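Section 5.1 Outputs to date
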Amino acid sequence: MPQNVTLKDVAREAHVSVATVSYIINNRPDQKISDATRKKVLQIANLLGYTPNPVAKSLATGKKNLVGIVYRLRENTPSRNMEILHFIDLLAQRLNPHGYECLLLPADVTDITLHRVDSVIVVGLSQEEFSSLADNCFVPILTVDMLVNDPLFSQIYSDLPSLIARASGSAPLLITEPYGNRNYGGFVTEGFSAAGLLSPSECSAEALRGRDVVILGAPLALIVRPLLSGQRVTVIASDPMGKQLPPEMTVLWSDVAKKADVTTRYLLDAMEKKFDAAHDCKV
């Protein structure tokens, strides 16, 4: 068996042409190939240990198999940062079996870098940051936990108000970090007056005393915990740190895994130029 298995090796063992092997390996939808032949070729390729050359595959399909993930971590949002990193990890796990690798990009990414990817997933950027990126990007863009309100872009976001509504208690205080995307932040806190909202820096034992509290994010709950004294506390958790919360706190889970599933499905549809999914998707 050759040390470096080639298309010719696979074609010879499968008794098909090199072109047929190439069509199957590159998943060419414009070629009619029987399921039996496709299965046989893939089995032999796996048996021989054939690994497609990524450069050759890119030339053959016009695809780089790279997904750019553009996000912003902020010093004053530890819970949000943890959720973003957890989401990116889950997303990468889901995209890898489909042949895509993730390229993590800074929020001020240049148009030169954007030319290296087949699509872009944008997480938690401000409207200004997103507008700057969208003006220089000509591949499919999906937004996550952002409300850009533009029919050109699908927006996938956690339905946190539904979880907040499930929290027990009457007229609770909502403790939340600021959101980079103001529209999404407004959606999350809709229904709360200024008196019912607290940022982490505004929290004190006096401000929290005697109030039912809802906290967005497990890391934030652990930070605020020393200021709490016997009141009813509900935490909306979105990352593994939620499992470290004390039993006296009620935990409601934001389904980040489902959000990663939905984002993956939307991206794969976009790459196949299928745009019939709902533009606005709450998870």
